[in-house]
Amino acid sequence: MATQWRQRVAILAMAVLTGWLGLANGQEGPVLKPGARLVIAGDSITEQKLYSRFIEDYLTVCVPETKASVVQLGWGGERAPGFAGRMANDTEGFKADVVTTCYGMNDGSYRAYEPAIGKPYGEAMRAIVSYFTKAGATVVVGSPGAVDLTYYRGGGDAAKVYNENLGQLRDIARKIATETNQPFADVHTAMATAMDKARAALGNDYDVCGRDGVHPAPNGHLLMAAAFLKAMRFSGDLGTITVDMTGQSSAAGGHKVLSAQAGKIEIESSRYPFCFTGDDKSPGGTRSILPFTSFNQDLNRLRLVVTNLAWDRATVTWGAESKTFAKADLEKGINLAAEFVANPFAEAFQRVDGAVAAKQNFETVMIKSYVTNIPRLAQAMAGDAESVAALNGLRARMWARQAKLAADVQAAFTPVRHTLAISEAK
Question: Cβ distance 147 to 193 under 8 Å?
C-alpha cells in the first residue's frame, strides 16, 4: 500500500510540474520545429514590438537551427474577440505552425472581475485555439500580463483589484490550454513575481509594467518574452567552450576553436548568447530586471569550463571586460552570458535586432493598413474582377515584402569571432 501511495504521489507531482512548466501532456522538445512559421498575436502591448522582437531575436541568434519565420500581428486596443474575427484573413498569407496569444489586458475592462468579463474572453480564446489547431498549428496560450503596482491609476487598491481580475483571466487561459493540450505561458505570474522582487530591491518607483501602468518598458517585455520562450520548451543550452590550460581546448554547440595557446583561445561562433541593454537600474533597458528573473539560467547558458588550472583563482578576460573566479567555479563551468553582460556579441546582436525591428514595424503597417482591409475593399468592389485581382495582388506583394525583410534579418546574422583569455588572478 505504501509503495502504491508513493507511486501515486510521484505521478501527481510530475503532473503538477508538467503543468507548471507549460508542457502539453508531458511532451518534450521545442514546440518550434525546424522551418516553423510563428505568429505572435496580441493587443497594444504586442504592438509595442518589444517582447515580440526579443522572441524573434532569440530564435534568430540563440537557436538558429530552428530557421523559424516570424510575423507579429499586434493591434492596439484589441481584445480576444477582435483577433478571433480577423485571424483567418490576417494569417492567410502566412500559414502558421505555432501561434502565441497575449490577450486579456483589455478584455478585463479595467475594473473588478465578474463572470460577464470572463465569459466572452474564454469563448474567444477557445475559438482562436480551435481555429489554429484544426489547421495543424500549436497555440502557445498566453495569459495577460500585469499592471504596475505603483503607476497603474496611482497604485494602491486599483492596481491590486485589476491584477486580481487579470489573474482570473490567466486561470481561464490556463484551463483552455490544459483542456486543448496546448502549451501555456504564464505571463501574469512572471511579471507579478518579478515586480515584487524588483520593488523590494530597487524601490517602488522602479516600474516593471510601465509608467502608464499597463505598457511595459523593455525590462517588463523581457519577462514576457521569457514566459513564451520557456513555454516553447527551449533548453537554454547555447554551447560550451572548454579551455584546457595544459592541452587542447574545444568548443561545441555552434562554436569552434580557431586557435589556442597558453590560456588564450580564439573562437568563431555561429550561435550568440542573448544580449542585454541599459544599466542595472533603468527600466528602459533589459539589464536591470536580470536579478529578478531566471532568464539567464533557463534560456541563456553559454558555458566556459576551464580545466587543469594551476591557481586557486583566475581572471577571465572576454572582450573589454575581465572578472575573477575561483578555480572550483571555473572547473564546474561559469555562464559567460550571465557573468559578462557587455560582451563581444553585443554589437552583432544589435545589428540583428535592428533588422528585426524594421521587419516588425513593416508588419504593423502591412496588417493594420492593408491586409485587414482587403475583404471590405473586395466586397465594395464586387463585380469588378480587375479590382479584386489587384487587391489579391496587393496582399501577395505585402507578404513578399515581409519575406524580403525576413531575409534581411537572416543576412544580418553572421558568425562572431571572439577571444577568451585566462590568467592568474593578481
Answer: no
Written as one string, the DSSP assignment of 98-165 is: EEEEE--TTTTTTS---HHHHHHHHHHHHHHHHHHHHTT-EEEEEPP----TTTGGGSTHHHHHHHHH
Which pLDDT value is given to residue 247? 82
Q: Using only the alpha carbons of the chain, give its radius of gyration.
A: 23
Identity of residue 187? V
Report the 3 state secondary structure along 109-128.
CCCCCCHHHHHHHHHHHHHH
**Cell numbers 482591409: residue:** 373
Query: d(Cα 303, Cα 413) in Å, to the nearest integer?
Result: 21
pTM over 0.90: yes
φ, ψ dihedrals at 270, nearest 5°: -105, 20
Sheet containing strand 250-252, edge to edge, reads: 250-252, 237-244, 301-307, 334-335
DSSP tag of 65: G
From the candidate CATH numbers 3.30.70.2740, 3.30.470.20, 3.40.50.1110, 3.40.1190.10, the one assigned to the domain spanning 2-231 = 3.40.50.1110
Q: How far is CA 233 from CA 27, 36, 221, 229, 251, in A?
A: 9, 14, 19, 7, 24
Contact criterion met (CB below 8 Å) for 336 and 239:
no
DSSP H or E stretch at residue 299:
helix 295-299
What are the per-10-residue average pLDDT scores of the chain (426 residues)?
A: 38 37 56 97 98 98 97 98 98 96 98 98 98 98 98 95 98 98 98 98 98 98 98 98 92 96 93 97 97 98 97 96 97 98 96 98 98 95 93 95 98 98 94
